[in-house]
Amino acid sequence: MSETISREERNTRTAIQYLQHIVDGSGKYGKASFDKAFALVSDDFEIEVLPGSVEMPRMGLPRYRKWLEPMVAELFDDFTMKILETTAQDNRVAIEATSSARTKDGRPYGMEYRISFQFNDQGKITRVKEYVDSLFTARFYGLIREK
C-alpha cells in the first residue's frame, strides 16, 4: 500500500530533515551532512537571518555554505535542536525550535528560533528566514559586553 502525503506534510518533513542535517553537520558527519541538507534546496535558494540588528546579509547557497560550514566546524563540539511546533500552509512551513550546544572552548550555547521555509512546486526549499534572539547572538559572538 503506498502512502500519499499532502504537500504540507511533504514540505514539513523536508524542512525538519534540512534542519537535522544542518545540526548533524556540527558533529562527526560534517560536510556529508551539509551536502544532504543542501540537496533539499533549489538552485535559487536564499537564506536571511533576522532581525536586521544581527547584520547578516541575505545569502545564496554558495555564500551561505562558505560562511556556515567552517563556522560550525570551528566553533561547536556538539549541537542539538528540538522542534517545538510546526505550521504548514500551501508552500510555506514555519518551525519553532530551540537548540543547545557546547563550544569547543567549553561555553554553553542555546538559542530560540522561528524559521520560515518557502518551497517550490517540486518540494525544494527556495527561501529560509531564520529569526534568532538578537541580544543572545550579540552577547555570544562578543558584539556587546555586559557591564
Write the layout of secondary structure elements.
Layout: H1 7-24, H2 30-38, E1 41-50, E2 59-60, H3 61-75, E3 76-89, E4 92-103, E5 108-119, E6 125-131, H4 134-140
Parallel strand pairs: 1-6
Antiparallel strand pairs: 1-2, 3-4, 4-5, 5-6
Helix pairs in contact: 1-2, 2-3
Tell me what you see in this structure.
- The chain has 147 residues and is α+β, with helices and mostly antiparallel strands.
- The chain has one domain (7-140): Nuclear Transport Factor 2, Chain: A (Roll), CATH 3.10.450.50.
- The chain has four helices and six strands.
- The chain has helices spanning 7-24, 30-38, 61-75, 134-140, and strands at residues 41-50, 59-60, 76-89, 92-103, 108-119, 125-131.
- The chain has a six-stranded mixed beta sheet with strand order 2-1-6-5-4-3.
- A hairpin with a 5-residue loop joins strand 5 (108-119) and strand 6 (125-131).
- The radius of gyration is 16 Å and the shape is globular.
Descriptors for this entry?
alpha+beta; 4 helices; globular; Nuclear Transport Factor 2, Chain: A; 147 residues
Number of distinct helices: 4
Q: What is the succession of H and E elements? A: HHEEHEEEEH
Question: Roughly what is the average pLDDT, rounded to an integer?
Answer: 88
- Structural class per helix/strand content? alpha+beta
What general outline do the C-alpha atoms trace? globular
Mind telling me the CATH class? Alpha Beta
Q: How many E strands?
A: 6
Biggest β-sheet description? 6 strands, mixed
Spatial sequence of strands, sheet with the most strands: 2-1-6-5-4-3
- Separation of termini? 63 Å
What percent of residues are in strands?
35-45%
* Rg computed from alpha carbons, rounded to a whole number of angstroms: 16 Å
CATH topology: Nuclear Transport Factor 2, Chain: A
Low-confidence stretches: none
CATH architecture: Roll
Q: Helicity level, as a percent range?
A: 25-40%
